[in-house]
Amino acid sequence: MVAGQPRGAGDNVPPVSVRVADGVATITMAAPALTADAKRSLVEALPAVGADDSVRAIVLTGTGRVFCAGQDLGEHAEALRADPGTAFQTIADHYNPIVSALAAAPKPVLAAINGTCAGAGLSLALACDVRICAAEAKFSTAFTGIGLAPDSGLSATLARAVGAARASELILLSERFSAADALAWGLVGRLVPAADLPAEAAKLAGRLAAGPTLAYAAAKHALARSWGLSLGEVLQGEQGDQARLGLTQDHRDAVTAFLSKQQPVFRGR
Fold first, then answer.
1. Is there a contact between 39 and 151 (Cβ–Cβ < 8 Å)?
2. Does the predicted TM-score (pTM) go above 0.90?
Protein backbone atom coordinates (compact mmCIF):
# COMPACT_ATOMS: atom_id res chain seq x y z
CA MET A 1 0.00 0.00 0.00
CA VAL A 2 1.03 3.63 0.68
CA ALA A 3 0.73 6.48 -0.14
CA GLY A 4 -0.75 8.50 -2.97
CA GLN A 5 -3.62 10.78 -3.84
CA PRO A 6 -6.19 10.02 -6.56
CA ARG A 7 -6.56 11.92 -9.80
CA GLY A 8 -9.61 14.12 -10.19
CA ALA A 9 -12.94 12.34 -10.22
CA GLY A 10 -13.82 13.97 -13.55
CA ASP A 11 -11.19 12.00 -15.40
CA ASN A 12 -12.70 9.22 -17.51
CA VAL A 13 -9.40 7.57 -18.33
CA PRO A 14 -9.25 3.81 -17.66
CA PRO A 15 -7.07 3.22 -14.58
CA VAL A 16 -4.89 0.72 -16.45
CA SER A 17 -4.41 0.32 -20.19
CA VAL A 18 -2.69 -2.47 -22.12
CA ARG A 19 -1.17 -2.08 -25.57
CA VAL A 20 0.50 -4.95 -27.42
CA ALA A 21 2.80 -4.24 -30.36
CA ASP A 22 5.79 -6.07 -31.83
CA GLY A 23 5.79 -8.68 -29.06
CA VAL A 24 5.77 -6.10 -26.24
CA ALA A 25 2.82 -5.54 -23.89
CA THR A 26 2.91 -2.05 -22.37
CA ILE A 27 0.82 -1.74 -19.23
CA THR A 28 0.23 1.88 -18.27
CA MET A 29 -1.11 3.01 -14.91
CA ALA A 30 -3.13 6.15 -15.68
CA ALA A 31 -3.68 7.49 -12.17
CA PRO A 32 -0.91 8.38 -9.72
CA ALA A 33 -2.47 6.38 -6.87
CA LEU A 34 -3.68 2.79 -6.75
CA THR A 35 -7.45 2.87 -6.51
CA ALA A 36 -9.54 -0.27 -6.13
CA ASP A 37 -10.31 -0.13 -9.87
CA ALA A 38 -6.63 0.18 -10.73
CA LYS A 39 -5.68 -2.75 -8.53
CA ARG A 40 -8.41 -4.95 -9.95
CA SER A 41 -7.32 -4.02 -13.46
CA LEU A 42 -3.71 -4.98 -12.73
CA VAL A 43 -4.82 -8.27 -11.16
CA GLU A 44 -6.62 -9.08 -14.42
CA ALA A 45 -4.12 -7.66 -16.91
CA LEU A 46 -0.84 -9.10 -15.65
CA PRO A 47 -1.72 -12.83 -15.77
CA ALA A 48 -3.37 -12.29 -19.16
CA VAL A 49 -0.27 -10.79 -20.80
CA GLY A 50 1.91 -13.33 -19.00
CA ALA A 51 -0.04 -16.15 -20.63
CA ASP A 52 -0.27 -14.52 -24.07
CA ASP A 53 2.13 -16.31 -26.41
CA SER A 54 2.29 -13.27 -28.69
CA VAL A 55 3.79 -11.24 -25.82
CA ARG A 56 7.53 -11.74 -25.37
CA ALA A 57 8.25 -8.84 -23.00
CA ILE A 58 6.20 -6.63 -20.67
CA VAL A 59 6.63 -2.94 -19.81
CA LEU A 60 5.02 -1.47 -16.68
CA THR A 61 4.90 2.32 -16.57
CA GLY A 62 2.91 5.31 -15.34
CA THR A 63 1.85 8.65 -16.77
CA GLY A 64 2.97 12.22 -16.35
CA ARG A 65 5.27 12.86 -13.43
CA VAL A 66 4.19 9.79 -11.39
CA PHE A 67 5.02 6.14 -11.95
CA CYS A 68 3.00 4.98 -8.95
CA ALA A 69 2.68 6.72 -5.60
CA GLY A 70 1.11 3.75 -3.84
CA GLN A 71 -2.29 3.24 -2.29
CA ASP A 72 -5.04 5.81 -2.79
CA LEU A 73 -5.20 7.05 0.79
CA GLY A 74 -8.66 8.52 0.32
CA GLU A 75 -10.07 5.08 -0.38
CA HIS A 76 -7.96 3.60 2.41
CA ALA A 77 -9.34 6.12 4.92
CA GLU A 78 -12.88 5.18 3.87
CA ALA A 79 -12.07 1.49 4.34
CA LEU A 80 -10.70 2.17 7.81
CA ARG A 81 -13.84 4.07 8.78
CA ALA A 82 -16.08 1.31 7.39
CA ASP A 83 -14.27 -1.61 9.03
CA PRO A 84 -10.64 -1.48 10.22
CA GLY A 85 -10.63 -5.27 10.48
CA THR A 86 -11.03 -5.72 6.72
CA ALA A 87 -9.30 -2.55 5.47
CA PHE A 88 -6.14 -4.48 4.68
CA GLN A 89 -7.83 -7.37 2.83
CA THR A 90 -6.64 -5.60 -0.32
CA ILE A 91 -3.15 -6.93 0.36
CA ALA A 92 -4.26 -10.53 -0.09
CA ASP A 93 -6.81 -9.71 -2.80
CA HIS A 94 -4.74 -7.32 -4.90
CA TYR A 95 -1.20 -6.44 -3.90
CA ASN A 96 0.12 -9.96 -3.39
CA PRO A 97 -1.35 -11.27 -6.67
CA ILE A 98 -0.01 -8.24 -8.59
CA VAL A 99 3.53 -8.64 -7.24
CA SER A 100 3.42 -12.41 -7.75
CA ALA A 101 2.28 -11.98 -11.36
CA LEU A 102 5.11 -9.56 -12.09
CA ALA A 103 7.74 -11.76 -10.49
CA ALA A 104 6.47 -15.05 -11.93
CA ALA A 105 5.72 -13.89 -15.48
CA PRO A 106 7.48 -16.33 -17.85
CA LYS A 107 8.94 -13.40 -19.80
CA PRO A 108 11.01 -10.36 -18.86
CA VAL A 109 9.22 -7.44 -17.20
CA LEU A 110 10.65 -3.93 -17.53
CA ALA A 111 9.65 -1.11 -15.17
CA ALA A 112 9.84 2.23 -17.00
CA ILE A 113 9.82 4.56 -13.99
CA ASN A 114 8.66 7.88 -15.39
CA GLY A 115 8.33 9.77 -12.10
CA THR A 116 7.48 9.49 -8.41
CA CYS A 117 7.77 5.91 -7.18
CA ALA A 118 6.69 5.37 -3.57
CA GLY A 119 5.19 2.85 -1.19
CA ALA A 120 3.56 0.00 -3.07
CA GLY A 121 4.65 1.70 -6.28
CA LEU A 122 8.24 0.99 -5.28
CA SER A 123 7.21 -2.59 -4.48
CA LEU A 124 5.79 -2.98 -8.00
CA ALA A 125 8.96 -1.60 -9.58
CA LEU A 126 11.14 -3.95 -7.55
CA ALA A 127 9.02 -6.94 -8.58
CA CYS A 128 10.02 -6.26 -12.19
CA ASP A 129 13.17 -7.76 -13.67
CA VAL A 130 14.76 -4.66 -15.18
CA ARG A 131 14.31 -1.00 -14.25
CA ILE A 132 14.93 2.07 -16.41
CA CYS A 133 14.23 5.42 -14.82
CA ALA A 134 13.66 9.06 -15.69
CA ALA A 135 16.49 11.11 -14.22
CA GLU A 136 13.95 13.41 -12.55
CA ALA A 137 12.12 10.64 -10.66
CA LYS A 138 11.87 10.61 -6.88
CA PHE A 139 11.57 7.58 -4.60
CA SER A 140 10.35 6.80 -1.09
CA THR A 141 9.52 3.67 0.86
CA ALA A 142 6.78 5.75 2.59
CA PHE A 143 5.27 2.98 4.76
CA THR A 144 6.58 3.97 8.19
CA GLY A 145 5.62 7.57 7.48
CA ILE A 146 2.01 6.59 8.12
CA GLY A 147 2.69 4.01 10.80
CA LEU A 148 2.86 0.88 8.65
CA ALA A 149 5.48 -1.74 7.87
CA PRO A 150 6.28 -2.67 4.25
CA ASP A 151 4.05 -4.93 2.20
CA SER A 152 3.93 -6.17 -1.40
CA GLY A 153 7.32 -7.83 -0.97
CA LEU A 154 9.28 -4.65 -0.28
CA SER A 155 10.98 -5.98 2.86
CA ALA A 156 12.66 -8.65 0.72
CA THR A 157 13.07 -7.04 -2.69
CA LEU A 158 14.51 -3.76 -1.43
CA ALA A 159 17.12 -5.55 0.69
CA ARG A 160 18.10 -7.72 -2.28
CA ALA A 161 18.43 -4.64 -4.49
CA VAL A 162 20.38 -2.31 -2.21
CA GLY A 163 21.60 -4.47 0.69
CA ALA A 164 20.12 -5.07 4.13
CA ALA A 165 21.74 -2.10 5.88
CA ARG A 166 20.63 0.51 3.36
CA ALA A 167 17.18 -1.07 3.06
CA SER A 168 16.75 -0.82 6.83
CA GLU A 169 17.66 2.87 6.74
CA LEU A 170 15.39 3.63 3.80
CA ILE A 171 12.43 1.84 5.39
CA LEU A 172 12.87 3.13 8.94
CA LEU A 173 13.64 6.76 8.08
CA SER A 174 11.25 6.87 5.10
CA GLU A 175 13.24 9.68 3.49
CA ARG A 176 12.87 10.54 -0.18
CA PHE A 177 15.79 9.74 -2.46
CA SER A 178 16.67 10.65 -6.01
CA ALA A 179 16.97 8.70 -9.23
CA ALA A 180 20.73 9.27 -9.05
CA ASP A 181 20.74 7.65 -5.60
CA ALA A 182 18.66 4.75 -6.94
CA LEU A 183 21.19 4.21 -9.74
CA ALA A 184 24.20 4.44 -7.42
CA TRP A 185 22.64 1.94 -4.99
CA GLY A 186 21.68 -0.54 -7.72
CA LEU A 187 17.92 -0.10 -7.37
CA VAL A 188 17.62 0.91 -11.05
CA GLY A 189 19.86 -0.11 -13.93
CA ARG A 190 19.92 3.02 -16.07
CA LEU A 191 18.81 6.65 -16.09
CA VAL A 192 17.61 8.71 -19.05
CA PRO A 193 16.04 12.17 -19.40
CA ALA A 194 12.29 12.01 -18.85
CA ALA A 195 11.57 13.00 -22.45
CA ASP A 196 13.66 10.06 -23.70
CA LEU A 197 12.19 7.43 -21.39
CA PRO A 198 9.39 6.09 -23.65
CA ALA A 199 11.74 5.61 -26.60
CA GLU A 200 14.54 4.12 -24.51
CA ALA A 201 12.14 1.80 -22.68
CA ALA A 202 10.66 0.68 -26.02
CA LYS A 203 14.16 0.01 -27.38
CA LEU A 204 15.14 -2.04 -24.33
CA ALA A 205 11.83 -3.92 -24.31
CA GLY A 206 12.26 -4.68 -28.01
CA ARG A 207 15.68 -6.09 -27.30
CA LEU A 208 14.24 -8.33 -24.60
CA ALA A 209 11.34 -9.38 -26.83
CA ALA A 210 13.81 -10.49 -29.49
CA GLY A 211 15.78 -12.54 -26.98
CA PRO A 212 15.62 -16.14 -25.74
CA THR A 213 12.33 -16.11 -23.85
CA LEU A 214 12.66 -19.70 -22.63
CA ALA A 215 16.08 -18.93 -21.19
CA TYR A 216 14.78 -15.70 -19.67
CA ALA A 217 11.99 -17.59 -17.89
CA ALA A 218 14.44 -20.17 -16.55
CA ALA A 219 16.85 -17.45 -15.44
CA LYS A 220 14.07 -15.60 -13.59
CA HIS A 221 13.09 -18.80 -11.81
CA ALA A 222 16.70 -19.58 -10.95
CA LEU A 223 17.29 -16.14 -9.46
CA ALA A 224 14.10 -16.37 -7.39
CA ARG A 225 14.79 -19.85 -6.03
CA SER A 226 18.46 -19.13 -5.22
CA TRP A 227 17.62 -17.16 -2.09
CA GLY A 228 17.96 -19.38 0.95
CA LEU A 229 19.36 -22.38 -0.92
CA SER A 230 22.74 -23.97 -0.38
CA LEU A 231 25.34 -23.84 -3.15
CA GLY A 232 24.74 -27.52 -3.83
CA GLU A 233 21.01 -26.94 -4.29
CA VAL A 234 21.69 -23.98 -6.60
CA LEU A 235 24.07 -26.10 -8.68
CA GLN A 236 21.50 -28.88 -8.98
CA GLY A 237 18.84 -26.43 -10.08
CA GLU A 238 21.12 -24.87 -12.69
CA GLN A 239 22.06 -28.31 -13.98
CA GLY A 240 18.41 -29.16 -14.55
CA ASP A 241 17.77 -25.84 -16.31
CA GLN A 242 20.67 -26.33 -18.70
CA ALA A 243 19.68 -29.92 -19.47
CA ARG A 244 16.16 -28.76 -20.37
CA LEU A 245 17.20 -25.65 -22.32
CA GLY A 246 19.86 -27.62 -24.15
CA LEU A 247 17.09 -29.57 -25.90
CA THR A 248 15.36 -26.47 -27.28
CA GLN A 249 15.47 -25.28 -30.85
CA ASP A 250 16.44 -21.82 -29.61
CA HIS A 251 19.67 -23.19 -28.15
CA ARG A 252 20.55 -25.30 -31.19
CA ASP A 253 19.86 -22.44 -33.60
CA ALA A 254 21.84 -19.97 -31.46
CA VAL A 255 24.89 -22.24 -31.39
CA THR A 256 24.69 -22.68 -35.17
CA ALA A 257 24.34 -18.92 -35.64
CA PHE A 258 27.32 -18.25 -33.38
CA LEU A 259 29.52 -20.66 -35.29
CA SER A 260 28.37 -19.09 -38.56
CA LYS A 261 28.99 -15.58 -37.14
CA GLN A 262 25.33 -14.68 -37.61
CA GLN A 263 22.79 -13.07 -35.30
CA PRO A 264 20.56 -15.72 -33.62
CA VAL A 265 16.79 -15.60 -33.98
CA PHE A 266 14.87 -16.85 -30.93
CA ARG A 267 11.41 -18.31 -31.45
CA GLY A 268 10.55 -19.51 -27.96
CA ARG A 269 10.72 -23.21 -28.73
1. no
2. no
